[in-house]
Each structure stands twice: as C-alpha cells, then as structure tokens.
Amino acid sequence: MIQNNSYDADTLHEECGVFGMYDFDGADVASTIYYGLFALQHRGQESCGIAVSDTSGPKGKVLSYKGMGLVNEVFAPENLEQMKGDIGVGHVRYSTAGSSTRENAQPLVLNYVKGTLALAHNGNLINAPQLRKELEYTGAIFQTTIDSEVIAYYIARERLNSQSAEEAVRRACQRLKGAYALVVTSPRKLIGARDPYGFKPLCIGKRDNSYIITSETCALDTIGATFVRDVLPGEVVTISPEKGIESDMTMALPKEKEARCIFEYIYFARPDSHIDGVSVYASRIKAGKFLAQDSPVEADLVTGVPESGNAAALGYSLASGIPYGTAFVKNSYVGRTFIKPKQSSRESSVQVKLNVLREAVAGKRVIMIDDSIVRGTTSDRIVRMLRDAGATEVHVRISSPPFLWPCYFGTDIPAREQLIAYNRTIEEICQIIGADSLGYLGIDRLKEMAEGLPICTGCFTGKYPMEPPKQDIRGEYYDKEIDLERKMSR
Ligand code: SF4
Q1: For Mg(2+), which residues are the binding ones (predicted)?
Q2: 335 lies in a domain?
Q3: Ligand 1, pocket residues at CB < 6 Å
Q4: What is the mean pLDDT of each run of 10 residues along the chain (490 residues)?
Q5: 323-362 b/e with 16+ CB inside 10 Å = b?
Q6: Which of 125, 192, 239, 272 lies at a C-alpha separation of 20 to 30 Å from 417?
C-alpha cells in the first residue's frame, strides 16, 4: 500500500486471497469459505475473516468474524456454526511486521442506504491516498487504514446513483488506479471485479447450485468445485439465481495493455493453480528449462529451495539431464509466532526452518534453484549450509530476473538501495552470496513462461503498465526475514 505521510501509520504491503460464495439452494456457506481460505493461506498469514448473510433475511444483517493469525488459529467450530448465511466472502491477508491490526483485517462490512455490503480485496491502489482525502473532505470517517475501505466507501456512494449494486461496483472501480481483485456481496448478489490490467488473479467456480469467486483455482479444487472460467481483466461479474453469471466489460483495455503480475507465476500462486489458462506449475518447470538452456553448468545434482524453487529445479533437471533430488528438509511447524533468534545467538532463522540432507549433497557439485533473491541474506546462508554439508560446488540459478525496482501493485519489494541487485553486477552478487556461479532468468523469457500472456515486468525493468506514484516509502517497513518466511510457507 503506497501512502503519503498522513497515512503512514498504515504500512501494510499486502498480498491477499479472496473467496466469495453464494449457495442458490440457501445452504450455509461459512464452513466452505473456511476451507477455501485454508487453500489460500499461502497468500496471507497475518489475519483472516469471513462475513456471511442470509439472502432471505433482513438486508442489513451481515455476520462477520475476523482476527489476527492463520485460518485455523482464528476460527473455531463454534464460530462457523454461528455464521448462518447462504452468501458470504472470506479473506486472508498478508502485511509486513508491526503493521497489522485487527481493524485492518478483512472482509470489510459497510452499512449503507440500500443495505449492507461485505468486501474483500487483493491488490494495491496507487491513488488510494488521493481518493481517501477526497472522501474525507466530503465527510467520510474511516475505521481502518487500508485502501479496501476506500473502495467500499466509493461503492456505497455510487450505489445512491446506480440502478444496481454491480453498476455501483463498476462505477467505483472506474475511479481506482492500480491492482485489485475484489469480491463483494450485496444483499442478494455475489460480485467480482478485476482491474483492467489483470494484475491479480480471480476466477469463478461452481459446486452443485452454488457459485464461487476466488483468487486461485486451488481453492476450487479444495472444496470440490469445478472451474468455470477466469474473471477477465477489466471485467465485473455478477452472480445471482435469477440471471446466473452476468458480465460487464466496460472497463476492459485492449488485450496488449493487460499486465498480469508475473510474480504470481514465479512465486505467489500455489503450483496447483491455473491463472488465465496457464498452469503455475508448468510455468515454473518452463522457467527451470530456460535456466538450463541459458545458464548451463556441469553438476551432479539439481535441487530447489523449498517450496517455490522445486518445480523450477525439476525443469532444470529435465532440460539438462542432471539428476534432480531433495537436498533440504523444511520444518513445517515454524509458525507465525516463531521467535526469531537474536543476531548474537548461535541459532539462525534459516537453520531453524531449513536443514540440509548431508547424504544428498556431500561430495557433489550442486545446482540450487530459487525463485528470487531480494536482499541476499537468505541465499548467502543457504549456500553456506550446502557447503558445510559437503557440497564441493554450489551453483545458484534464479527463476526470475534480478529485482531492481519497487512494486506499486501489492508486492512488498523493498526500496532499491536494499535490493542486492541494485548497482551490482551478477559477478558481485555471486561473490556476496558465496556461490561458485550465479545465473538469473532473462527478462525475455518471462512472457514465454506465461505462454505469451501480456505481463507486468515493472520490478525487473522499471517500466510499469501505468505511471507510478512519485513517492515510495515502502522500503523502511520491509522485514528482511519475510523472504524466508514466505518461501517456507509455500
Ligand atoms: S512490479 Fe513486479 S511484483 Fe509488482 S505487479 Fe509488476 S511484476 Fe508483479
């Protein structure tokens, strides 16, 4: 979230997951939303929430429950049992350390003159500060510091002059600049909206007589729903029992202007998801194959840094013929409340979370594949661990190009000066992380990875699909442990 100083109390840089559901037969949806959020947990581990309402009940009644923590920490069976309603929306949220509060957890529930709406948002608006100011000058009082509330206010305001809730959503979206995948429940409709560039994924699923709108297809699989289709960039979809799925493409841009976040394929999304028809797993395998073609090296073993480096490592192995193997054991029980070792302590966060299989690497020349290097501190430690376990050579291959620029659309890349690739050559980076060689994926390979879909490459090239804001204050809030924690959660 990019903000001016008046809002810098909100330092959240989110990447979130959304899950909305409407059961036309009137069955309760809260427990299914819960399992949907479980499948989206990798998109956000700081807070989560569910809001439901009964479409045959009073229009203003929305039951919501949210809290800080993982889905299984926040919800108990009794919470879900009390949440009666056949339409609802859920959200998982990620934010940087020290910046998360319960008030900022989603979904947001807003009462307005035509009823109550609940909203869950994934993405980052670059004009949120201006929009917020504009609303404040006209009397709005905000309860949270997240830009999702700005969207909710605009929808409520537009609803006064619109024929329908979906028209209000579309009119509100036309004021937004940046990345958003939204799920909104109005008293009788489930509405989804994706920004015209399509930065964030959003898809539609169906199970029996209920419809789902969610961030990733893995959530559909988890609840036994079938994939219907992706919400298109610039599309507003409305789902109701009377009309099924209705589409409004008023905001759509020419196809070549779309700009999906390539990082969804490289790292964010779960490998068993498909985004806009492209398998995330297959795109990672492809990235590994490209690395093998473009940065070959002789070695005895290819391995991935778990979890997100594994598919690319397999791709490298398939293209090079070098055997693929597991070299790391991850401790899956390191949760959100993990107490980080002090700098002076002999334990390191990396070693607590990850150990090397000595038998797998001793005496071998190892190619280690990772999805990215941000600051380099984690890579440096992992390379050292491989050497300590007896690897004779460690060659690092990265399945993305070097990060050189900030992201304004919801990814918490730190300020340029904190990026290891800033002002350094690849040889210099290689030396810092202590590897024998280092290779990155070429920028020209990214589009091939996404099977030719138009993509955003801003954080690698500095060329953004839209004019970025002048001010960037995100770096100072970035937690260097985050790279590792997020890697470990995948
Ligand atoms: S700048 Fe990078 S991380 Fe941000 S949306 Fe574009 S590709 Fe994704």
Answers
A1: 308, 370-371
A2: yes
A3: 199, 261-263, 407, 409, 411, 456-459
A4: 26 70 98 98 93 89 93 94 97 66 84 87 91 88 84 92 95 96 95 98 98 98 98 98 97 97 94 98 98 98 93 98 96 67 69 91 98 90 96 98 92 85 96 97 97 96 91 42 46
A5: ebbebbebeeebeeeeeeeeeeeeebbbbebbebeeebbe
A6: 125
